[in-house]
Amino acid sequence: MIQVATDHYCLNTSNMTTKTTKGNSYMFETKLTRRSILVAGAATALAAPFVRPSWAAPDTVRALMWEAYLLPDQITAFEESNKVKFVPSFFDGNSEAYNKLRVGGSKEFDLVQADGFWPQLYFREGLLREVDYSKVPNSSGYLPEFGAEVFKVLSDPQSGKKIGFPFCWGAYGITYDAGKVQPERTETLECMFSSDYSGMLSTSARFEENIALAALLVTERLGSRDKPRPDGKPFNPYVLSDEELAEVEKLLIQQKSLLLTRYQDNPTLFQLLQSGAVVAATEFAQVFRQLLTAEAQGAAPVDFRHALKMKEGGLGWVDTWLVTSGVQDGKKFDLCNSFIDLMISPTVMKKIGEVAGCSTTVDLRSISNETERKLFLMDRSNEIADLFMFDQPSSPEKWERVWSNVQAA
């Protein structure tokens, strides 16, 4: 059963920013997000100006989406074949998209992207409409874990209605040098807190993932997951008791002395791992892919591996396509379905994976070689079932305070 707990993020961003989520200021958010990294990975594809057809389109499809997934050639083909204009607007995080939708976005946008539990929130608040998989033929090509009857994350818990289509997936796991870190050591998160690797570990500067990963280890140690949770729901590493948060703070302070650095961008982490200065680091598998690619291009061979889930669990994400409640049955709904069908077609999905550097929910194994299957974790999609999806902390203020204390220690 997929455990989805949701706002997360696969190349070079070290700019600091303040992020607002539901009115709360994330003071320590580093703009090192999966989204911004994906955008950097897509820079080549988007370098040329996006020129739309000069003819006037009778209809418009408006999308609120992550910029990294915009493929200009496919957009142009969609416009020409459907005689429409596609108008994209971009956002960096789920909270930003949510705020835009709440202030009339369901009337301003036809399509929106989100991940994890955000679609369920949107649907509960009347921002999305029900979708019909039978109207999107390529939905039959999903990997088993993402099929309509299996991937319950995109079903409304109360009504059972389907509310969206899976698109891409990934995780925040451990990339390590198997020549220096025994693979069995990465079967537990204890690896990232072990004095055996003091001065040779690294984590990102993103506070949410650091706290959530530590929470998986802390709650396992405390045995508190099966006890009544603060929100009355099943365990979610983004919903923690004060006792658990206090233990997380202690653990992260202990870990701080073991870290060589908290990296601000992927090129930095790439250099640290390739040089051997770092032997294990938590990341989005982007650097893992870069390391394997570098070896294929002549770099000295090193047995780099990537662990997605540990015995305490792991963090993951699944991006989706959704149709807003402003779209009624008829031509506009048909256009939205046609666009989603194009985007999840195998050939387009393969381009998405290559340009954005992430794994796809569509089964591409029959049109991929062995190297591609390894790079994009195509044979490991079953591991998504045991990951907790990125989410918004239940108390951003408390999480910020914990991170502030860790930084000051």
TrEMBL record:
Compartmental location: Periplasm
Any coiled-coil regions, as ranges: none
InterPro entries recorded: Sperm_putr-bd
Keywords assigned by UniProt, alphabetized: Periplasm, Plasmid, Signal, Transport
PANTHER family: SPERMIDINE/PUTRESCINE-BINDING PERIPLASMIC PROTEIN, SPERMIDINE_PUTRESCINE-BINDING PERIPLASMIC PROTEIN
Protein name: Extracellular solute-binding protein
Native species: Shinella sedimenti
